[in-house]
Write a structure and sequence with these properties.
Elements (H helix, E strand, L loop, with lengths): L1 E4 L3 E5 L3 E6 L4 E6 H7 L7 E2 L10 H13 L3 E3 H4 L1
Antiparallel strand pairs: 1-5, 1-6, 2-3, 3-4
């Protein structure tokens, strides 16, 4: 699956991670630093989830987290654009 951060989003650094705010709704979500680091390439281009170095993370847990981000509208899939 290919994913990319949706637009428009506002991102703010905090000690715990990134606060990501959907500008359309002003809803904010905290993304832990470790998870954001894995997904940060999705800021600029579509990221293939199979190419992510999970670095010790449970792959099912990571995919569930990513699916939640898609459901919240923070990430989009390439399929959504076609």
């Amino acid at each position: 699956m290919l994913v990319k951060f949706a637009e428009p989003l506002f991102m703010q650094d905090t000690k715990e991670g990134k606060v990501i705010v959907k500008l359309e709704t002003n809803e904010g979500y905290l993304i832990p630093n470790e998870a954001y680091h894995l997904l940060s390439p999705a800021n600029n281009h579509f990221l293939d989830l199979n190419s992510i170095d999970t670095d010790g993370y449970d792959i099912r847990e990571l995919h569930s987290f990513i699916q939640d981000m898609i459901n919240y509208g923070l990430l989009i899939t390439k399929d959504e654009l076609e």
